[in-house]
Structures are given as C-alpha cells and as structure tokens.
Amino acid sequence: MVSPSGDRRSRVGRGSRPVKRGSGRSLLEFLLDPASYAHRPRSIHLVQTHASLVVLASPFVFKIKKPVDFGFLNFSTLAKRHAACLTEVELNRRLTSGVYLGVVAIVRDGGRLRFAKTGERSRVVEYAVQMRRLSSRYFLDHRLRRRAVGRREIMRIVAFLARFYRAQRPTKEVSQWGTVAHLRFNTDENFTQAERHAGGTISRESLAAIRAYTNGFLRRHGKFFTRRVREGWIRDCHGDLHAEHIHITPRAVNIYDCIEFNDRIRYGDVASDVAFLAMDLDFEGRADLASEFVAKMARALRDDDLSRLMDFYKCYRAFVRGKVESLHSVAAQAPAVERLAAADRARRYFQLALRYATIGSAPAALVVMGGTGSGKSRIAQALASEFGCDVFSSDRIRKALAGRPLYERTPSKERAGLYNASMTARTYGALLDHALGAVRRGEGVVLDATFGNRVHRRAFRRALSAAGANAIFVEAHAPAAVVRKRLARREHERREVSDARLGDYAELTRRYEGPVELPRSQRIRVSTTATPPATLAHLLKQLAGLRLASQAVT
Q1: Crossing angle of helices 421-440/394-402, nearest 10°?
Q2: pTM of the model
Q3: Which of 47, 285, 339, 503 has the fewest Cβ atoms within 10 Å of its own Cβ atom?
Q4: What is the set of domains in the chain, with CATH numbers?
Q5: How far is it, in rounded angstroms, from Cα 34 to Cα 520?
Q6: Can you count the helices (H) and strands (E) in the chain?
Q7: How far is CA 96 from the centre of its chain?
C-alpha cells in the first residue's frame, strides 16, 4: 500500500506504461497532466502498487484501483472498483480525521477525460478515492528510520488503537472468522497463492516449514481459538496495520488504508491486528518497541492471552506481506527498479516469517555443531541464507586470529600452536562475542563450529541466556564411510578453510563429546547424507516442530 505522502514507493514519471480505460486518451496520460486538476498542481507523481495507482497532486492524493483479480482481491469490473472506493472511504474514516475526502468519478466527455461534477454519473470510466496529502516526516516508518520513536509514541498509538478496538463490537458474522476452520481457509489461501513465488522470493524449504508450523499450531490449539471467539476478541479490525499506515504528529494520530476489499481479511482476532504492527517493528529493527507495544496493548485491552498468540500471528502477517510484495515484484506495469525493491522486501518478510515459525521473536543463535566432515558448514551456510543473517565460523576465526591464509592448509609443524587449548579458547571467545553482538542488536545468528566440548556449550548457553537470547544446537552427523570420503576429497579442493583431513579423523572423533547434556528443547540432530535441499527441508521442519513444542497455549 502507499501512504498519502507518496514517499514509500518509487515515483514514476511519464514514461510509465499507459493504463487504458476505453478509447482515446489513456487514463494514465490524463492523471499525469496537471491541467486535469481544478487546483492545477505544480507537479504530479505516480506511485504504483500491485493493486492501485496513486497520484500525488498536492495538496491531494487520488487513488485509483487497477482492474485486477488476485482471488483475495477482485477489482476486475468498474462496479466492483466503485464499491471498493466507497467502502474504503467509509471504513478508513473510523481511524482518521479529515484525511478521506470522498470518491470522485472520471468521465469521458467527447474525446477527453475529466473529473465529474458533483452527482454526475454518466459516461464514467473510472473512480478515485480523494485524500488529503499528509506530511511524510510524521509517518511511523519514516520516524523509525530517524530513530524518532520511543515509549511516548508507542503509548499514544496504544491508546488510540485500544479505543478503536473497544468500539468494534463482535457480531456473529465477524466472530466466525476466529474459528480454526476459517483461519485455516485464510492461511491455506496464502500458501497456495505464494507457491508461484517458491524458488524466487521464498525457498520451497522455507515455505514448507512455515506451512508445517502454521498448520501444527492450528491443530494443537483449537480449544484456545474457540475460547478467543467465545470471549469476544474477534472484531472488525484494520487488517493492514503496519508502520507506513500510521501517521503520528505532535497533536494527532491517524491510521489509514485498512483492508476494504475483503471483509474476511479485516475480520479477525485483535491479537492478529496487534501482531501486524509488532511484526513490522521487528522488520524495521526495533524489536524493543515491538515488545513494548505488545505488552502495553495487552494491558490496555486487559487481554492476558494476547502475547501467547504473537508469534503465530506475526508469522501469518509477515507471510502476507511477503506475498503482497512478491505480487508487486512481478507487476508488469511497475518499473524494473521498483520490482527489484519489492522482491527484496518480499524476501525479508518471508525470512521474518520463517524466524517466527522456527526460533521465535526473541533473539536466538543457531549453533551448528558436529564432528569433522559431518557437513555442519554446509548446513550453517544454508541456514544463514534462509534466515538472512550472519554466519560465523570457528575455522575462519581461528585462522584470522593467527594471521594464517584462509584457504591454505596449515603446515604440520604449526598446527600444534594453532589448535592448542589457548588458541581454541580465544577462538570460541571471539565466536561468542560475535553471537552476543548479534543478539543484542535483536538479530539472529548462525554459528559454525565443532562444539565438541561440553564446557564450551555450557559457556555459550549461559552467556546467551544472560543476554536474553536462546541457543538452539543443531548437531550434524553422517556415517563414518561418508565422512571419510568427504575428508579424502578435501585433499584436492582449493577453497577449503578447515585443516582437518582423513588422517586426523580417528583422533578428532575420539575427542568429540556428544551433546547428551543438552535438553531436548535446545537440541536437534540431522543427517547430512541426503541432498542439500532435502537436508535443509528436514531441518527447518524439525525446528518448526521444536518451536511448536515450546508454545504451550491452554
């Protein structure tokens, strides 16, 4: 969606592809001509989304719906677009003041287009929602990037939303969308519509893991969702509550652009609406504000169960944003630079959805461990790619600390000094520093090291716990015959960081201490003998299962 400021998406000039509505001059040519407007704006800018054309003609904004049908959104006929415009104005006036001015018609008069006079309905070729243009500096996403959002702003948003939610009374028509059957309808639709983007903005392995987590949560907690319906938490909400839709000045809060095109997407648990903004705060790198917002909303609404649903609904909301951005990334009318930016945003939203589905909202370190040749480094790289986070390798750190060339095997006479207890302690200390730095920034991180000593594992668990983060250990393993073949191949590989070779296998295996002391809630064991995609898919589903087991909702 696009803010009335027009600053969220790339601006498009006269070189854009014309959008035809009938014969003669194109609608786009008409919209981009300052002479088309009674107030004669000094400049015109066009912003496109997957579903709308938004014309910035200060001091106004005109939003025209594209004739598209995505299933969940259908603007394929003029009548449907007109109805959606009227509904958009009506619904958005609930959360705004003086922003939504009304619906205006565009008519064809002879061979030219013009805005219709009041009450004129003949020869209409299109409708537009007319809005007052708002100052971009006060939109929440802009303020977040300027670090101009703190507890005071969060509390103002909480108070504003709490009044809105309390005013929306649950009805039978609305409440049905809180049942598991209807939730499943929405989530299944999302997964089906996202499948066309699998292998592009989302991997097939991540899609499968998010689906497994979502379906598992719905299956496990049916009674809990039924109770939410019974207690009246399903309301007519906003439905698209993310940062760029919130405008907060020193004097007023306006929240615009709610879902008007599909009631069932707007109808939902208040927790789902809250999760949308909490997810977007996470997306903007402000997990601290997300936690503050959720805690204050729960208190304002007196909803003791709200926080228990956050990761489930944040996963759902991040996935929806990934899908929407993916649609825009393949929109034929959007400029190439805009499509690329949308694809990047889509990947980041899908990565966030995967995080909620597998490791949760809190910062976490995925510690990929295992004996030499077990395949841990390949797993670590694959996980870092899926989550969009950094990966730190003990092999790389050790050689960097010693000043050794990365891809050159250390001579035998120097290995004793490189792998003694003191150097190992320095290596794992640096690895821990990297991990703590990431989680303190609210980020996830992947660590790649043997971790074959329980002392090192204990130190990492304690330090990460003290930093408010979790450690999940992923132990890679493979049969001895497979490991020996891998180690033998290293003799001929030029870009190999590890010094370990086949001759070291027996001694390194003898020293390795399996992670038997780790609780099952922090440990996964994965075979690396299958293809890399199959191994990754299995691992991500295991992580989703571990996450489900940790979410006890009653």
Answers
A1: 120
A2: 0.88
A3: 503
A4: 27-134 (3.30.200), 141-358 (3.90.1200), 364-550 (3.40.50.300)
A5: 66
A6: 21, 15
A7: 26
